[in-house]
Amino acid sequence: xxxxxxxxxxxxxxxxxxxxxxxxxxxxxxxxxxxxxxxxxxxxxxxxxxxxxxxxxxxxxxxxxxxxxxxxxxxxxxxxxxxxxxxxxxxxxxxxxxxxxxxxxxxxxxxxxxxxxxxxxxxxxxxxxxxxxxxxxxxxxxxxxxxxxxxxxxxxxxxxxxxxxxxxxxxxxxxxxxxxxxxxxxxxxxxxxxxxxxxxxxxxxxxxxxxxxxxxxxxxxxxxxxxxxxxxxxxxxxxxxxxxxxxxxxxxxxxxxxxxxxxxxxxxxxxxxxxxxxxxxxxxxxxxxxxxxxxxxxxxxxxxxxxxxxxxxxxxx
Length: 317
Hints:
Structural class: alpha/beta
Largest sheet: 11 strands, mixed
CATH class: Alpha Beta
Oligomer: single chain
Shape: globular
């Protein structure tokens, strides 16, 4: 009897261990929230994205592109982050002055997430990267893409990534065109793809976005009607940075080009409506020959971005 109990206990331990290992390797219930995505290659998955993800009303930023800060965006289901990095100097009153050109002499110089000017909003880079790392560590079946509009040296940005611990999860292999499956990326702990818009330097896991990795649509739509009206979708799908060669495809989906000083939920919901995103994404797929990999929007808490991405991934009717 004791031997039977011991045998049963050992079996339970083995099964639990195998299940835990399988889950950690991406063979568990899901990848990015769905089991069906595990066997798909990265360029075959649609990722809901946040444009200017760091610019958040919750953080007191002026002219915010988002309502929630990055950790809450990730919890909601955002899987692509478009961010801007700058040099800034912390002032005695707690504000940050932009110092990309090194001409500001007052205050300690550091790395910040800012949108154009740190004076309208700034978050120290390392803590935000650490929050992304913490999310990935707690959600081990998640794959994300970070696109950095870089105004800082590649070595400085790489140092911040390593200091934050996010370097434990960066994707170090060749950036396409043959992407691994989400399952493989998760199993190898290389589930954060990091791209630079301008200069990636020689950092092995940091890649120039528009140098054969990423292609995109235009990103300047001064009136919401340009995105809402189906008649405008073909023009909105024309090639922009990256031409048509990148294996990943970014659908820039926000309007107007400059957000209002206070978020307009109704306008954001109209631009981000599920049927608008579905229609435009499918039109771009028809014209460009590939489904968008990233759909990047402003005010992602309004509208149907997540529902549209799920349907484009064939996970919902």
